[in-house]
């Protein structure tokens, strides 16, 4: 089995109400439960990033496609990883997407 990185992209507000937070956590836990042992690292959400450009210029706006979080999974190939991502709860918000990249083992 190969490892794949899911990078969640988009920007939105975190739920402020306890019921909304719990519903979001339940959705993620349900999806992770469905993925089972394929989840290598459940990851985390991330805060606003900075981007260092050539010449040392720094952008403080999260870039053109802000990262919202990540997960690492195992799958038989990238198509399998794509299929597993289709039920990701973040995709319920039209402003978000999941980028999938194979992790290349070095050495």
Automatic annotation (TrEMBL):
Superkingdom in the source lineage: Bacteria
SUPFAM superfamilies attached to this UniProt entry: Dimeric alpha+beta barrel
Protein name listed in UniProt: Uncharacterized protein
InterPro entries noted in UniProt: Dimeric_a/b-barrel
Species of provenance: Mesorhizobium temperatum
């Amino acid at each position: 089995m190969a490892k794949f990185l899911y990078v969640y992209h988009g920007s939105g507000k975190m739920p402020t109400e306890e019921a909304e937070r719990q519903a979001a956590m339940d959705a993620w836990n349900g999806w992770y439960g469905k993925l089972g042992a394929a989840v290598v690292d459940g990851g985390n959400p991330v805060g606003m990033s900075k981007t260092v450009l050539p010449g040392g210029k720094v952008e403080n706006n999260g870039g053109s496609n802000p990262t919202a979080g990540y997960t690492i999974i195992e799958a038989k190939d990238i198509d399998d990883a794509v299929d597993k991502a289709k039920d990701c709860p973040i995709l319920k918000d039209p402003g978000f997407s999941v980028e999938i990249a194979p992790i290349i083992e070095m050495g």
